Each structure stands twice: as structure tokens, then as C-alpha cells.
Fold UDP-N-acetylmuramoylalanine--D-glutamate ligase.
Amino acid sequence: MTKQRLVILGAGESGVGTALLGKKKGYEVFVSDKGKIKEKYKQVLIHNEIEWEDEKHSEEKILNANTVMKSPGIPDKVDLIKQIRTKGIKVVSEIEFASKYTDAIIVGITGSNGKTTTASLTHHIIKQELNVGLGGNIGDSFAKQVLEHDFKNYVLEISSFQLDDIIDFKPHIAVITNITPDHLDRYDYQFENYIASKFRIAINQTKHDYLIYDADDEVITNHLKEYPVQSTLLPFSLKKTIKNGAYLDKEKIIITIDNNQIIMPTTNLALEGKHNIKNAMAASTVAHLLKIRKQTIRESLENFQGVEHRLEQVLKINKVQYINDSKATNVNATYYALESMDTPTVWIVGGTDKGNDYEELFQFVNEKVKAIICLGVDNEKLMNTFGNMVDIIIETQFMSEAVKIAYKIAEAGDNVLLSPACASFDLFENYEDRGRQFKNAVRNL
């Protein structure tokens, strides 16, 4: 019997993890990357005798595949992907491929914002009592973990791009944190397409599975009315009383599942801000479903350290607090950041604009922002949008310069906030690179 041929496009964390799992499961594996493969990944492929190429895609080696696993970064409109689909070759994402080889309980978390914090927080709570891995869009490759650890449970942070390439993937517990316009460049600038993509997380769920979601988010609630899902619904809300799910009553989170109720005080939550109460509700609801003890949930919420590049307090210099929120790659994420500022703020913003509408930020900019530093290749839209709202608006293309300017403008008691509201690819490798450059520049002041 001839071996099934698995071709992997993109040799990053998920690609190389899938290659290792595929080889172990008896596939003939070929890895192809249009860019240069990082040395550490190249060494893994060589060591495991997996055939690879970089800086090109050889069609004759790709179009004879049975299955193609493509990196979530590759859009469907690329010619090669169109050819693959025309030939009827199955295209899957890493989570689709890897989930076939595990019987674990999967918690899948998606949303425009808050998914990394919610996934990290959920994992932090569950790992106190259960055997659990954290993967997907975060940390180690899910496929590699299935191969090496075979955890009994997984918490996966899942992007819409990963959900676009699922067929049978079904998390037992799905979470949608919120849905706001993002990545519309990949969805023909149709918000509906992006919403539908997020809801694919529940597409294969049955009534024995659960969907946890923000009931205050009209985009989600309207979509559910129009396109009901099979799953058992467990909403969470800051505004209304919820019979089955979670809600806020004064300063307490109340979670009810099948008449089994737990109550959590929010006064000592490690993470600040309203949006983090929602993240805590989602994570606690998952933990409650998985029968984690109330005491464990409460302690975990109080000692969770947060996520790097997400409202991360870097240093205080001359009574000015420097905050790294480089992970804010869309307007809604920056909305949460500005909302949580309680002193005058010097705001560093900009990057690759994905069709942003900045209007929802106006109230905070008027109220809290004393100066804006635009950090991008093309800052025209930002300059036009905010130019009349603040006394000082400056543009630069260097992080070190942006931080030096902020240092000159900020006075004792102010915040300097990097919260770009844009993707990072114009000047940086990714949002992590942008955040680290910011932290280094602050440390070098």
C-alpha cells in the first residue's frame, strides 16, 4: 500500500509540529516554505529525516499530495492554494490534523480579543488539578504535544484562519470571547464572513458540547438568533442576570451550570479592567464544567500573572509607568487598554492598518490621551484622524525614537502606553518583536 503524502506549507511552530506527528503516523511528509526556515526548525527537520525546501514552493512536489496542511498565515487567494483546491486535494489546519490523533477533551477558545489571556488563564486554573496542554495559536505546537505528551485535556487558542481549514474538528467546550471587525482584508472586507469564520468553532458540536460566549456582545447574540448552534449555551455577562452561565452581581461572579452554583469575589482578581472580569468568567465557567474545585479556581484567578505584551507593566521611570500592550493588533484591543488608563497617557500607536475605524476610541483620546506618537511606515490616516484631538502628535519609524519622545513628553504620574491597534508587519517581525523592542528601549532610557 502506498503511503499517504502529507505536504506542509510553512515551516513555523505548527508546520514542524505537524510534520513530526505526520511522520510518526506513517505519512510521507514534505515541508515547503516560501521564506527562509528558521535554523532551529531546520535542525528538527534534518534530525528527523523529513524532506524540506525553503525560499520556494516546488509545485511538482506539492500538487501530488493527498493532504495539505497550510500555515494559517497563507491566504486562500494565493495561486498555489487555488491550484491545490482545484485538484481536489484536502486542505487542513494543524488543529484539524492533530485532533484526529487524540481522544483528549478539547477546550477551544476564539474571539477577536482576549483569547490569549482567556486561554492562558483557563490553562492556569485547570493545570492545578488536571493533566492539560496549552496550544493552538500560543506556545508549543498542538500536533507536537499530541505526539510527545498526549495530554488528557487541551486548551487551544484558535484564530479564525485556523478555523477556516477545519472539517471535523470539534471542541467539547468552545469559547467565543467577542467578535469585532479584524483581519477583514482576509475576508473580502465582509464582516459577515469573519463572524461566520469564528462560529466555525461550534459547527461540529452537538447538544453534549458547550458554547461559552459573551452575552453582552450583540454581534454574537444576533448571529446565534439567526444561525442557532446545536451546543448547550453558557453565556456570561456584566449587565444581565444569567440563569445558566455566568454574570456579575455587585463585585461577585456567579456561575451556574445545571443548578450547581459557585460564587467568586472579583475584588482580588490579579488582572485589572472590565474586559478581564469577562476573561475570568469564561475561564472559570470552563473550569467549573471540568469539575475543578471552587477554591482552586479562586486562588488561580488571584495569582495569575498575565500574558506578555498584553497591558504588561514594564518599568516606572521618574514616576512614569511604561506599559507594553503590543498584542493590541486591532482597535477593540486598544479600546480596552485606553479604557483601563486612569492617568494622562502618552499613546504610541500605528503599524499596518487592516481597514481600522478609530471612532470608538475618540472618547478616551479626548479624555485621557495627552500626546500621540505614530509609529508606522504610513501614518497618514492616524495623523488625519487624531491630529485635532491632541496638542502633540508626532510620527517616527523607530521604536527607540518613539520611546525617547515619550520620555520627553511624559510627566510624573503619567502613563506611556504602547497599544498599536494595528498589525506589526511594516516595521517589525511580529507583535512580540515590537513589544520586546519597546521593553528594551524603555530599559535603555
User: Anything to note?
Assistant: The CA atoms of residues 118 and 279 lie 5 Å apart. DSSP finds 17 helices and 20 strands in the chain. The domain at 96-303 is CATH 3.40.1190.10 (UDP-N-acetylmuramoyl-L-alanine:D-glutamate ligase). The mean pLDDT is 94.
